[in-house]
Every structure is written in C-alpha cells, then in structure tokens.
Amino acid sequence: MINLHVHTWRCRHAIGTAMEMAEEAARARLRVLGFAEHAPLPEEIDGWHLPLIEFPAYVAEVEEARSRHPELEILLGLEMDFIPEYEEFITEFASQTSLDYVIGSVHYIDGWNFDYEGALAEWEKRDRAEVYHRYFHLIREMVERIPFEIVGHLDLPKKFGHRLPPELWDEVEATLEAIRNKGLVLELNTAGLRREIAEAYPEGRILRRAAELRIPVTLGTDAHEPEHVAAGLDQALAYLGTLGYEEIIYFRRRRQLALPLAELRKSP
Length: 268
Ligand code: ZN
Ligand code: FE
Ligand code: ZN
Ligand code: FE
Known about the structure:
- It is globular, with a radius of gyration of 17 Å.
- It has nine helices and eleven strands.
- The strands form three sheets. It has a seven-stranded parallel sheet.
- The protein has helices spanning 18-27, 55-68, 87-94, 122-125, 128-145, 169-181, 204-212, 233-242, 261-266; strands at 2-6, 32-38, 73-81, 101-105, 108-109, 112-113, 150-151, 185-189, 217-220, 247-252, 255-260.
- The N and C termini lie close together (9 Å).
- Helix 1 (18-27) packs parallel to helix 2.
- By secondary structure, it is α/β, with parallel strands linked by helices.
- The protein has one domain (2-265): Metal-dependent hydrolases (TIM Barrel, Alpha-Beta Barrel), CATH 3.20.20.
- The structure holds zinc ion (2 copies) and fe (iii) ion (FE) (2 copies).
- One fe (iii) ion is lined by residues 79, 105, 107, 152-153.
C-alpha cells in the first residue's frame, strides 16, 4: 500500500511524530509512506502550518523515521498552500531539491479558510457556485505558476456537505485539462470518507473524467493522527481499479515512479 499524504504534530493540529506515523505505517504494511506537512508560509497565518523555523527539524524527524524503518520507503514531501500573495515565497520553497515531491492544495479563497470548522459560518454568506468558481480558478492559477507534482484533494469545498453545483462542470473540465497539460498527478484523498460527506476527494464523476483524460493518480489518507495512516486505502485502490487505473504514482527526489495496482493489491 502507498500513502503520500501524512501530517505530523509539527503543524500543531495533528498528533503523532514522524516516528509514530512510520510505526503505524509499518504495522499496516505500507510500502511507501510520504510525509506532506503543511508547508511554511512567509508569515504565520492562523497557526496551522509548519513554522518556518522548524523546517530543518521536520526534515530531520522524517529522516530519523526513515533510518529506523528500512522496511518502508519513506518520502519527504510538503503540502503547499497556494495563496497568490505569497507566490514568490511559495515558488522558492516548493523548488527545494531535497524534497521528494510537493502536493499543491487550495484551502484559502481570498483570505477565507473555507475548510476550517471555525470559519464554517462564512458559507452561509456565500454563493456556493461562486465559491467553487473562485476555487477552481485558484487551482488553475496554482497549476500554471507553482512548481509542484500532485494536486491535493481537488474538490475540498465539499468537506462540510457543500457539493459541487452541476453548472460548474465546465470549471472542472478546464481544471482537469490544465492538470493534464502540465503533466501533474491527481491525488485520491481518503480523508473525505471520514467526514460527514463520507466520500473521498475528488468525487467519482471527477475521477472518472480524470481517468478518461489519462491523468495519473496517487493515494493519500491525509492522516492527522497515527490511527488514520492507512484509512480508506483498500477502498480507494479497489475504486481506482474499477476506473481502469493500473498504477499508482509516487516521487523520489522529484522523479516520477509507479507501483502497479496489481502488486499493491497482493500486499497484505
Ligand atoms: Zn491539516
Ligand atoms: Fe489539505
Ligand atoms: Zn471561470
Ligand atoms: Fe493535508
């Protein structure tokens, strides 16, 4: 099994050290475990990103876990927030060659952290179609401007039940096209299965279209605690099989590699 999206205590809203996450991954017999901590920003906003000053400590923590768990392939990644005002910093940070890969994610729409429970009331004031419209535009901006490998949880605005309005399908198409044209990889993120929406990101219709467009995929559980290190992976893998996917992508030092689906299914 493979999971490229795991957080640690260093983002201050997850629990578990890299070592504890790795221990759980070893117990669950993962083959590849990728850490993708919320990347630092040039200034502290909302207090849920890795503090910039702790980046070296994060790297050291992942490396220590790697040296203690040779049975796992442990990767060093980041989940980079795309916030247009910080483009220069983000570009520089995401370009670091020591990283195995970067997941690009949008959690902010014009300063609003739309997937944060504490900012849930804002949804009442917003037009859902407008939210999605702005969201997909931000994703495409990110795709065009930032160096990264994996598009994280593509339909995240549905997290609290605000599903994609059907009239926004053109935006999905344009976004998938941009992803394909840049040669990026789409993440199937199982965190949604643990939310009230009870469905992975992105939804089936988007993933089916991605499969038609031959956009490669990877897997992530977005674990914020050791217990979730392998959550939903079996289900996700089975689903990808029904869509005709034959391999799961991962990255070592920014080089794209693939694990055949059939091989992953065999592993206990
Ligand atoms: Zn998080
Ligand atoms: Fe995220
Ligand atoms: Zn538009
Ligand atoms: Fe995440």
